[in-house]
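ok so I'm stuck.
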Amino acid sequence: MKSFYIVVCSALVQFSLAFIFTNDECEGNEIYYNGTGSICHATCDDPDHDDCFKILHPPGCYCKRPFVDFGGDCIMPDKCPPTGTCPKNELYLKRGCDSFCDGPYVTQCNTEFDFPSCYCQKPFSRNKRGKCLKREECPKTNSSIKKTRAPRRTPARSSRE
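replied:
not stuck anymore, here's the structure
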């Protein structure tokens, strides 16, 4: 029964967020995804988009092909750092949890993810662009909810076995 509520809540969040974000907020190498269907979130760790159907992504801006996401930046795959590398203020863990600066997402680390990835080190929180900042450096929220972007997870740069 608990999993049913989680699925329903997730669907409601996805549906409501689809009306908040707009196409014009995406930058040059990004494309807007409204939260319906699936999107292949290409990362340095997974440039072939293997997570298309594994992970439910929130509405927001994601890297256009052939660009890949590394720490909230859309870069060409040949510019990805060596394996085992995480962006500044992040740590590679087999499982972990992120805090977020603001927006309709959690502000505390209360959901543990059971997959390897780069996670914000304490006391850092992930901003809307996917970067880990000190909590006091997080941008102050304003009344303009239109500018809210879906936070992107930093791709894992683990060694492949």
